[in-house]
Amino acid sequence: MEYIKTDVEGVYVIRPRVFEDARGYFMETFKMKEFEEQIGAVNFVQDNESKSSRGVLRGLHYQRGACSQAKLVRVIKGRVLDVAVDLRRSSPTFGKQVMVELSDENKQQLFIPRGFAHGFLVLSEEAIFTYKCDNEYAPQSEASIRFDDPTVGIEWPIAPEEMKLSPKDLKALSFEEAEKFD
Predict the structure, then answer these.
(1) Is 61 among the residues known to form the active site?
(2) Model-level pTM?
(3) Which candidate in 12, 62, 118, 131 is catalytic?
């Protein structure tokens, strides 16, 4: 696998080696020893998967405090625009974002360390999104930042009126109001 540092501290794009032939393809999606050598030790404890239709925007979600989660995300069907926003005040990239298209075709993954808000917008007719977390989900610690917050300034490729958001995501806080990490 190829581990590519992004412009935001601690976030990596991971490109697997894909072996294709007449039967289909094979690839390794995670190898702990290699991951630790390239990025560092992360103890993933929970895997999640979602299925969404075109225009669904999930995010920008995060877990506050000690419940914060590092994530290794990928798409196994379809295409999404994946976004991570740095909420770590001590980071040189505080408030900055990473945007990466993840798809079943490019097979890229994105590693997002603790201290980030995360979300994705479905660009294909349907997408199946899966990810590993290094901390279990804690509903009492969940938080969200508005997808259209002007401070964050994400340029989504689909107009807001075409997006499908949950009632919870429509009530998310602004970047200024949101709890940050030290």
Answers:
(1) yes
(2) 0.95
(3) 131
